[in-house]
Design goal:
single chain, 123 residues, disordered N terminus
């Protein structure tokens, strides 16, 4: 079987449609727990609209759930660099670092995420 054609065909499928259609397709894949497929759709969308947080965050979540932790970390760091008070990205970054066994690095992100969400410990 010609794998070049297969790869090109798959790439065309994931890139097909308007940005709104691809966003919806990615969300459907994510909801169906098809995280790798969601990521394949989202990569092109994020390249097309790099300033939008929603697609990049869903891409990071897709990477996280498909155990592509370094890729998740890269996307999450870009988000928090642009928007330091994006608490969900901070939380995800902390959890991604924890999952890699990097607990000391995760701590500050998790504490900041809690503070940004208003989760303060009772005195």
């Amino acid at each position: 079987m010609d794998t070049t054609y297969e790869t090109t065909d798959n790439t065309a499928y994931y890139a097909h449609g308007t940005p709104a259609e691809r966003w919806e397709r990615a969300r459907l894949f994510f909801a169906a727990k098809e995280y790798t497929a969601a990521a394949q759709v989202l990569v092109g969308l994020v390249e097309e609209v790099p300033e939008q947080t929603g697609p990049r965050l869903l891409l990071a979540r897709s990477y996280y759930h498909s155990a592509q932790l370094l890729r998740a970390e890269t996307e999450l760091r870009l988000i928090v660099e642009r928007d330091p008070v994006e608490h969900y990205a901070r939380l995800m970054l902390g959890r991604t670092l924890e999952r890699q066994g990097r607990h000391a690095e995760a701590g500050p992100h998790l504490r900041l995420a809690s503070a940004l969400a208003g989760d303060f410990p009772e005195a």
